[in-house]
């Protein structure tokens, strides 16, 4: 295996934790923004629709992380986690996985 292949491959548990963390972040971000709106008119504005889409995207990512097929979860996590900004979520996922593996 090349070093790039080793760096890009996440195992199943790390992939699931990563997708769960990413989905939870999107749900929290969108919910926070929707809770800050003062009236029902603001919720149905363009910004409200955008934050609703962010919450929905978070729900889908979280659902994939929890109930997705093993190969699809790994593929989605590798595709999603390829951006440099998401390194924080990957590091959090690796930390959580290491704690879970020590607890066994």
Question: What's the short version?
Answer:
The protein is an all-alpha fold. 80% of the residues lie in helices and 0% in strands. The longest helix has 24 residues, at 12-35.
Task: Walk me through what this model shows.
The protein is mainly α. 80% of the residues lie in helices and 0% in strands. It has six helices and no strands. Helix 2 packs antiparallel against helix 4 and helix 2 crosses helix 6. The two termini are 29 Å apart. The N terminus is likely disordered.
Helix content, binned percent: over 70%
Number of distinct beta strands? 0
- Termini distance? 29 Å
Mean pLDDT reading? 83
Shape: elongated
Content-based structural category: mainly alpha
Discrete helix count: 6
Layout of helices and strands:
Blueprint lengths: L2 H6 L3 H24 L4 H4 L2 H22 L2 H11 L6 H16 L2
Helix pairs in contact: 2-4, 2-5, 2-6
Index terms:
about 100 residues; mainly alpha; 6 helices; about 80% helix; disordered N terminus
